[in-house]
Design goal:
Distance between the termini: 9 Å
CATH class of the largest domain: Alpha Beta
CATH topology of the largest domain: Rossmann fold
Number of domains: 2
Order of helices and strands: EHEHEHHHHHE
Number of helices: 7
Largest sheet: 2 strands, antiparallel
Number of strands: 4
CATH superfamily of the largest domain: Alpha/Beta hydrolase fold, catalytic domain
Radius of gyration: 22 Å
Shape: elongated
Length: 201
């Protein structure tokens, strides 16, 4: 028998006070997040469902889980070799998809993926705006400026705004779905099913 447990990171509060802000738990970093995730995982197996502890454990995630999952795997490996050598979690492997693997390339404030060129190429490559507009963007803005942190001219910014207008509403994780990004959708997505822990047994 298999089991899947979803652990959503990022929706929580501390000390029983749901009115706290994002800093009410103290300073967070990837290591502290991995410690909290591991405590939750260990508690799930030790306290809630010890009958599943012997099952194979695979840690899987996407996006920023490219950081979270390897950090969590490190915690499991260290714990299996240390405090719980006689009572280890049976981790067999981990996988990440569409992963942020560090803040220098795809994610983070200074990542190259944050510069306009990658957005232009993604949407142009998926046929979401015209070749005429693409050529105008490249001619006016230059590839070098779009790939860097250089200030963009007002004409360039105007062309990028036109690109966004041609693209219209979209859901980044499923570009082929026709959707209008409305407040209702955003409320459903951010306040709905994504923000809870679900166990399927």
């Amino acid at each position: 028998m298999g089991a899947v447990t979803y652990l959503q990171v990022g929706f929580s509060y501390c000390h029983g006070d749901p009115t706290g802000d994002g800093n009410s738990c103290g300073a967070w970093n990837d290591t502290r997040a991995a410690n909290a995730e591991f405590a939750s995982l260990r508690g799930w197996f030790d306290d809630k469902f010890p009958e599943y502890k012997a099952n194979d454990l695979y840690l899987i995630g996407e996006s920023y889980a490219g950081v979270y999952i390897p950090k969590l795997a490190q915690e499991v490996i260290a714990d299996n070799a240390g405090a719980h050598t006689s009572d280890p979690l049976n981790m067999k492997g981990f996988a990440v998809g569409d992963a942020c693997t560090g803040s220098d390339v795809l994610c983070g404030d200074n990542a190259a993926g944050n510069y306009p060129w990658w957005t232009v190429m993604f949407f142009y490559g998926h046929g979401q705006f015209s070749t005429k507009l693409f050529n105008a963007i490249v001619d006016e803005c230059t590839v070098a400026a779009l790939q860097s942190n250089q200030a963009l001219s007002p004409d360039c910014q105007s062309l990028l705004a036109q690109m966004n207008e041609e693209i219209g509403g979209y859901y980044a994780y499923n570009l082929c779905v026709s959707i209008t990004m409305s407040i209702t959708f955003l409320q459903m997505y951010f306040m709905g099913s994504c923000c809870r822990i679900v166990n399927f047994l």
